[in-house]
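seq:
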Amino acid sequence: MKKFFAIFLALILAAAVIVGCGETGVSNPTPDGEVSELYEQVMSRFTGELEKGAVVKVLENDTAIEIGYVDKLIEAFNEAYKDKGISAERMNIDQYSDLATDGPYGYGPDVWYQANDIIMKYANNKHILPLPVKSMESYSHIPESAWNAYTINIDGENFYCGIPVNVQSGMLYYIESSLPENWKTDWDINNNDIPDFFETYTALYAYSEVCKEGNMPTQYGYLDETVDTYFMSGYLMTFGAYVFGSNGTDAKDIGLNAGDADKGAYMIQQWAGEMDNTEVLDKTFASAAYQYLADKVMLCTVTTPDVYTMFIRSMVNTGNWTEESAYADLKMVNVPRLPKSGDLTADNWQDTITDMDSLTTETMMMGGINGYGISSYTKCPNASLAFIEFAASYEQVMQRNADLGITPARDDAAAEVAKSDPTVGILFDKLDRGLISIMPAITEVGQIWTPAESFLIDLSTDPYREGRGEDRLYDTPELIKAGLDRLVQQIRDAIDTLA
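struct:
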């Protein structure tokens, strides 16, 4: 933890230097210090005058609503602005609302909390407003890498269409009391006080096999949704794959089949067979995972930091934990390393621990920056701006962390959280070293999900086909490579059709 915290503080200082060099105020200065005519034109809707009587409609994250954070946020905002004649209310519609369809008719939100790729998909089609971010209190507290996730270029000038709130990527969750009693003697061969099965996926595969044999604290070792593109793409990216070229901006260059991506795909297939549970082939497993962990059906799974409280709630609901003991028992750590060979089934899994550097590689993960955007169709842009500034304040980001376990994008909040939570240092370290691939923020990214999910379903179903009297589709590396090639072609065809 000390190591991660030291790294994190160094990153924060570097980020502060980079971001702090920008001027504050309402301007977007040109090299000679003048405000450009384009900037004045783009920002013309933000006059600073609050629209009296405005009620800001807020569309928020479903988990944040379920936990109760959103109601706290809106209540706090309404109290703070009760003398200014504006207020906010939560919208009761799906968090993945189609702003392009709903907005023009007045059914969409004024303010929308979402992942950067979703907000920027709409921003690129002018459904989301560029923001006067340099006038915001949070501007100098948010690293450049986070702001970049919301950047849009208009006639050669960069603008920002969202205010970052938290960093997202996969972390491994487990319950400490679910560890086997013999883990220190049998599953810590390098004597570093870390279970081997949390250091390499090969060791985790071996431990999962032992769990299936019985007489272990949990029925399964690792369970995960093997058809989820967001998390499974990390297996491909670790071996050279990428979504789009030019840092996610060139949709003509689709790279999900690049490098040795077939090795990553092969490991997804191996996991699907080892898990031997068809629930992992269904996207509903993500919500079932909370109870699976709490009921000690499985030892661990991978998901994002912002659902930490959902696991806590499930643990408390079993009656086996108080809230205090649940927080002490639930752990969130970095994802294990992957074998360079692409083979998880190796009997000599111990070698991946004792010879870790030469036999394994750090796992890349898909990630994102969640934040707030403002609809182009809002009738109260200044009141909406006031709301997102309030929601992105230090106090509110800290409250969001307390309620949901998010990793703050703000450096001051992140530094405070990192004192007791090493997750923050882990994520920022991975982001800095290029081990988190931020989801592309262009319209075309919407065309990857359906083909990728279809490929993952076929790939993950393969281990079950023989039992059904069917032939496997991907039983050789060559067939897996061909499947990835078809996936890329399907995405390309979908993008061309959309164009």
